[in-house]
Amino acid sequence: MTEQLDQNPTAPRPASSRGTTADPRVVPAFAAPPPGRRRRRHAVVGTGHRAGMYVGAVTGDHADVAELVAWCDTNPGRMDHYDREVGAALGLDGPAGLPQHGPDDLERMVDEERVDVVVVTTPDATHAALVARALDAGADVVVEKPLTTTVEGCRTIVEAVERTGRDLVMTFNYRYAPRNSTLREVVASGAIGTVTSVHFEWALDTVHGADYFRRWHREKRTSGGLLVHKSSHHFDLVNWWLHDVPARVYASGGLRFYGDTNAAARGMGPRPERGTGTVGDPWTLDLTRDPRLRSLYLDAEHHDGYRRDQDVFAPGITIEDNLSLVVDYRGGATLTYSLNAHSPWEGYRVTVNGTEGRAELEVVERGAVVLDAEGNAVLDPSATPDAAAAAALEGSVRAEGERLVVQRHWEAAQRWPIPAGIGGHGGGDAILLMDVFRRDLRLAPDPLGRAAGYKDGLRAVAVGIAANRSLETGQAVLVEDLGLGTDLTLDAPQTTGRADAADRADPDRADPDRADATTGAR
To answer: Looking at the record, which segments are called Disordered (predicted)?
Structure first.
């Protein structure tokens, strides 16, 4: 597998994201492309860090079915960065020389470059217009989460899909992380009965969580806040685990840690204007310490003035850092959800209660944020040679890892095995990319339905949009009252079949004639 540049550099890189060999149970089987079949022509709209995952995939593992033919962005420096990367991947002496376009030229780009698929990785608030324009221009679309940030954006996309009949793929990579797809397997198997409630707690640490307050995400008008930008991942997981539709949302939260007011209240004193050039401040990010960030942002800053390393305690932050939700589902289950963006560790806990038992998933992606000898936060403490950082982790009671426990009523708890994944986001990215680029070559349907479309995107952002409205009004919000432009009802639920107790404790003891609950293969 080609190494994928798949995560924000401040995100944890746990062992589950570093695997290079995946368990066959979680990897779809694909046919080889027919001889002589033309590769699909892709254009990338939005050339920030997130685009790297798709650029690496098209020039690497999926170069036999896809090719890059154009860039589209407001910043020529970032387009130049990726053009050099593609040139290197193709073995050229210099940049690839792919055509560069501005957003106003999107339709002309699709036409002149004969684009089959537009990959949208721009700031969230721009998704709706770009997606609709690409569809209308005659291209299919792959869009990063979230689908969009507003009710109006939802309607724009729904109308464009219905008007054109073209394909729109949502890249919910967390569905493909084996720990999450295994929990889906547990719920769908009926092992814990009918779900009555879910508790989902997500902790973002003071490296990764803080990063949302340095960049454009810090403004709600651009990102929709963490409830839309970040939590759409989490709401999609719950929607998918339950195979249900959110109906009613109540939210509480606020900006209680970051921002100038909170800094002043804690007596923090003067703050640096930006992270680059600052030493010994764990809250800052120095772009010169990461060659990729330097090229994409610092060296390209003069084109548009965008600063990737703003101070997290500066004025102008309009998003929340502490959030709590109660979400009622049409099927009767209730979700309680919390997000904290200044935790000393990063990971999540999920508890699913059912009429016949309970499932508990606990994931530690980074057990601690530690400092180097100069007082800077260490992005990857598991890889650093720094003695102080290593000593801080030695003997930690919060070790990196993941565990899924299933316990039925009247039975002892059983640890449910989690298969190995491949690539970032808990081993899910590389598997997702297989579906993105060669979905039509699948040899069998996915019994867990991991591939996501625009209605999955709508159901996920519906929770965040309703929650933002609840924060504004102090009242619970009915999702159907949002008027998203389409019916969110799901098809009949999929089932993976019911495993007996011996199978749950040790899948290797399962009946060889029973369809495997993860792959559906016999």
So the answer is: 1-41, 489-522
Please give the CATH architecture assigned to the domain spanning 40-173: 3-Layer(aba) Sandwich (3.40)
E strands along 128-266, which residues? 140-144, 168-171, 195-205, 246-254
199: which strand partners?
A: 336, 351
Residue appearing with tokens 């639920």: 493
User: Based on the number of CB atoms within 10 Å of its own CB, is 406 exposed (0-12), middle (13-18) or buried (19 or more)?
Assistant: buried
CA 123 to chain centroid, in Å, comes to 14
What's the rounded Cα separation, in Å, for the pair 497 and 279? 56
pLDDT in tens, 175-194: 999 999 999 999 999 999 99
Tens digit of each residue's pLDDT (9 = 90 or more) over 65-91: 999 999 999 999 999 999 999 999 999
For the segment(s) 174-419+453-482, the CATH number from 3.50.50.60, 3.30.360.10, 3.90.180.10, 3.10.20.340 is: 3.30.360.10
Geometric angle at alpha carbon 78, from 259 and 305, rounded to 5°? 45
pLDDT band at 232 (very low <50, low <70, confident <90, very high): very high
Q: Can the peptide bond before residue 146 be classed as cis, meaning omega within 30 degrees of 0? A: yes
Distance between CA 27 and CA 98 in Å, rounded? 32
40-173 against 174-419+453-482: fold identical: no
pTM of the model: 0.91
| β-sheet bridge partners, residue 252 | 324
The single-letter DSSP state of residue 298 is I
Q: Is the pLDDT of residue 501 over 50?
A: no
Structure tokens at 175: 């569905």
The pair phi, psi for residue 474, each rounded to 5°, is 75, 10
d(CA 264, CA 338): 26
Burial 54-74 (b: 16+ CB within 10 A, else e): bbbbbbebbbebbbbbbbbbb
Among 461, 521, 480, CA closest to 149: 461
3-state secondary structure of 485: coil
Structure-token pair, residue 142:
């792959």
Q: From CA 128, how far away is CA 149, in angstroms rounded?
A: 8
Residue (of 341, 399, 39) closest to 205 by Cα position: 341
Q: Is 381 exposed, middle or buried (0-12, 13-18, 19+ CB in 10 A)?
A: buried
User: Using CA atoms, how far apart are residues 516 and 458, in angstroms rounded to an integer?
Assistant: 31
Domain ranges, ordered by start, for the chain: 40-173, 174-419+453-482
> In this structure, is the dihedral angle defined by the CA atoms of residues 311, 313, 317 and 322, taken in order, positive or negative?
positive
Which residue bears the tokens 């070559």? 441
Which whole-number Å values give the CA distances from 67 to 70, 333, 401, 402, in the listed order? 10, 44, 36, 36
User: Which whole-number Å values give the CA distances from 45 to 69, 117, 118, 388, 426, in the listed order?
Assistant: 11, 10, 7, 42, 26
Q: Which tokens hold the place of 299?
A: 């060296």
Output helix, strand, coil percentages for the chain, rounded to the nearest 5. 35, 20, 45
Compute the residue count for the chain.
522
Q: Is residue 193 classed exposed, middle or buried when 0-12, 13-18 and 19+ CB atoms within 10 A define those classes? A: middle
